[in-house]
Amino acid sequence: MSTERRRSAGGRRRADGSAGGSRGNGGRRSRDGYAADERAAASRRRPREDDGFWADERPRRSRAPQDDFDERPRRSRARDDYEDRPRRSRAGDDHDERPRRRARGDDHGDRPRRRAAAETAALESAGGTGGRRRARGDDRPDDERPARRRRADDEGYSGRRRANAARSGAAGGRRRARDDEDEYDERGPVKRFFAKTWKPALITTAVLFILGAVGIGVAYSMAPSPAELEAKADAELAANVVYFEDGTTEATKFGETSRVPVTIDQVPQTVVDGVLAAEHRSFYEDNAINPIGIARGVLFGGTQGGGSTITQQMARNYYDSLTTNETSAIDRAVRKFNEILIAFKVEQNLSKNQILEQYLNTIYFGRGIGVQAAAQGYFGKDVSELDAAEGAFIGTVIQQPGNFGTAVPGSEMYEILQERWEYTVKGLVEMNAEDPERGLTQEEADALEFPEPLPMENDDNYAGYRGYIQEAVRSEMEARYGLTPDQIARGGYTVTTSLNEQWMKYAEEVVEEQKAQTLNSSGQEIPAETQFGIATVDTATGEIKAFYGGPDPTQYANQSLVQRQQAGSAFKPYVLATALEQGISLKSTYDGDSPKEFPGLAQPVNNDSNRSYGPVDLIQSTKDSINTSYVQLAIEVGPQAVIDTALAAGIPEKQAETAEVGPNIALGTMSVAAVDQAGGFATFANGGYHMPQHMITKIVDTETGEELVPKDAEILEAGGRQAFGADTAADATYAMQQVITDNHNARLDDGRPMAGKTGTSNNAVSAWFVGFVPQYSTAVGLHRTDGQPLVLPGESSIYGGQMPSRLWKAYMTRVLEDVPAEEFPPPVYGGEVRNHAPTPSPEPSASEEPEEVESTPSTEPTQPATPSFTPPGQGNEPDCDVQWWLPECQDEDEPGGQEPGDPSGDDDDDDEEEPIRTGNGWGNNQIYYRDEE
């Protein structure tokens, strides 16, 4: 056989020697000739018992199992272990004992030269190693030979022969080799992964770092310089113009149009220390930014307290895009990034005193921009004449300039202002402890008294309802649009509201007419402490159409948008809606007798005049405002579920803190404002969908022509959020329609469909009537600023069905004069009819005395809206943190739980008294709003 034919048949290369030499012995023929050489070659090529080249079709470069490797070690033809190779043929050897290659046609009992393809596949699928050869033996710890020699030895003589390339494929072999290498790699998947990816990862990181550095450099170079910011501060000053709903009639205007800058030398040290004590006590020691405050601002959007340095505040005040109206963490991060760049640039170009001077000249203080304007606005004197107490006051108002600047004595915001001033004074003492040249000693601080600011000037743009509109718009610009007080003060915005000028006048007219009527009929004036809240909301859009703020914005906080008092029985519709949502029908019956004791309540619950109604359904319970049946209903559905329904309908979430979670939630222990109730009842008229109450419909930046987008834009565009189903809204509205009887004081003369609910809190601290037609919802509430019971001359008793209802009718009669009448959806009477009334005893005979029947509220289980509440009597262990009123949760040493109301039953709503909450601005958020981030 020629050499070429042998190469073709076995795929073997010659190790060395000439092409014509004998096969497999390096080109040297033995003395026995060609035959002996062939037999020797056959011996070297013969298949082994368990594996070998001929047992597999493809070359193996992966490592075989260790036990197989140890059993049959391969040997290389390298000369350094020549003695270990098989002996070459010698004359006289018994060649017949050597295995020979089977010729074509041999018996099948002999070992074949190649294994069949099917058999090879079967062995591979069974996990057998067959003739797999080791690619290299580098992992043998006892092998000290060079790597090249080891690979040669491990491959063996026939390991250098390749199988038919057409059958196996070289690429597939390399791929399988890599897979086998991973299989036997002892480093683990994590180390193997990083071993393969660390170079690409390093390159990618380097590229991103370079791009980030370039981007930061470009952004830094584009950030405005301190000189540009100073010029911009003067150029930006312009008035904000506010329009009524028609977009052409001007309601009011506000904003600073000029400022009087002063040098740092003109500002006394007492004012400087007061500002630093309130805003940044370590200003002279710190850098441009506060990393912790920045992280908090990015994560929480500035709602978690202060943290910005004075340098950051100055940067934010100047830069147009540094508003707080971000909808995501990414937007907040971008704003903070811009703020940081400007702060660094300012810090590098100005000294600490220069930064402080520019800050004091450009910050908004509530009554003007700049410290000089603030000194004139609050105390009527130059800044150089302010003492330590007044300097601390100037620093105090920076936190909430919009609220503190308009706070009036006696209001809650004024109390917050005083508490903040005390915090500033305490900071002055701490500053003095660290540096005796700054701040005040404890003795000096104890001698200070709170400085009373001057009343705000009442110009034409701030007189009457215009001043209340101004404050409401200012607050909504902050809360809904994310504008800072400084941006609002610098002005330049055109604001269109939903307010109807004529309806605003109607609200003022009916209040003044009622006061005059009371004076004429009784000869006495209504006490000045009496507050009248009136607010109207469009049921389909949530737009506030009108409100009554009060007689004087410089003396009284907004009585409709800010001041809050207990809702009384006007809260019962939320209990009813919760029950309807849980599948309880309007026709379900409850025990309406009075008085009635309930677990966890210290005193029995009474109905108005202690009247007993017997078994009543939910329609009659709503119509007659029956306390005992509604307390049973609240226990059944779960007090927390009632609160959740009220919040979903439109009551601000913050107000949940004013209500104690217990059975008396049905009697209106939560404090609300007139605009809250108007928005909540509008949800019933809108088929269960709540539209957030708002006053501003459009804000346009006059300079750029850009229209600002409010935070709740998506909700408004989507048609609101569903608080409860349309069937629930229809059934609840039907029950409230029955409240408006023919002789009700709120019934409209034109007879159009209307619904509503009265409410009177315990001891007549507040009185309500909330009514609505399909298009508009209006709430009217009366209370006193001092939290004392209402005293109305000529009124023998105080109820929501009296003066509040008369005011509602007088006002809505004028409002609806040109509004067409519409019908409410009919009731569907959804849910299951349940009977929770006691079973009466058989009629006694004439000679028998009637037995007294004890009425016990039913504890039939329902499906509560919140899983945290479990109706009593179900065999489950109660959660006493939630169901504290249950007998199982009562301490034997304690007398009882909530006070359910006056046992005499003189009021129709038995609630617990709570101090009134007042403030300035629009919405409860403003009371606790903080400008710092």
TrEMBL record:
List all Acidic residues biased stretches: 904-914
> Is the keyword Disulfide bond assigned to this protein?
no
Pfam families noted in UniProt: Transgly, Transpeptidase
Q: Where is the composition biased (Gly residues)?
A: 18-27
Q: Where are the transmembrane segments?
A: 201-223
User: Locate the Glycosyl transferase family domain: which residues?
Assistant: 253-423
Q: Name one GO biological process term.
A: proteolysis
Q: Does the keyword Glycosyltransferase apply?
A: yes
Question: Reaction catalysed?
Answer: [GlcNAc-(1->4)-Mur2Ac(oyl-L-Ala-gamma-D-Glu-L-Lys-D-Ala-D-Ala)](n)-di-trans,octa-cis-undecaprenyl diphosphate + beta-D-GlcNAc-(1->4)-Mur2Ac(oyl-L-Ala-gamma-D-Glu-L-Lys-D-Ala-D-Ala)-di-trans,octa-cis-undecaprenyl diphosphate = [GlcNAc-(1->4)-Mur2Ac(oyl-L-Ala-gamma-D-Glu-L-Lys-D-Ala-D-Ala)](n+1)-di-trans,octa-cis-undecaprenyl diphosphate + di-trans,octa-cis-undecaprenyl diphosphate + H(+); Preferential cleavage: (Ac)2-L-Lys-D-Ala-|-D-Ala. Also transpeptidation of peptidyl-alanyl moieties that are N-acyl substituents of D-alanine
Penicillin-binding protein transpeptidase domain: residues covered: 536-775
A GO term for molecular function = penicillin binding
Compositionally biased region (Basic and acidic residues): 29-59, 78-110, 136-158
Q: Which InterPro entries match?
A: Beta-lactam/transpept-like (IPR012338), Glyco_trans_51 (IPR001264), Glycosyltr_51/Transpeptidase (IPR050396), Lysozyme-like_dom_sf (IPR023346), PBP_transglycosylase (IPR036950), PCN-bd_Tpept (IPR001460)
In this chain, the stretch annotated as Disordered covers 1-186, 823-933
Q: Which GO CC annotations does the UniProt entry carry?
A: outer membrane-bounded periplasmic space
Compositionally biased tracts (Low complexity): 855-868
Q: What are the UniProt keywords, alphabetically?
A: Carboxypeptidase, Glycosyltransferase, Hydrolase, Membrane, Multifunctional enzyme, Protease, Transferase, Transmembrane, Transmembrane helix
Q: Which PANTHER family match?
A: BINDING PROTEIN TRANSPEPTIDASE, PUTATIVE-RELATED, PENICILLIN-BINDING PROTEIN 1A
Q: What is this protein called?
A: Transglycosylase domain-containing protein
Species per Swiss-Prot/TrEMBL record: Thermobifida halotolerans
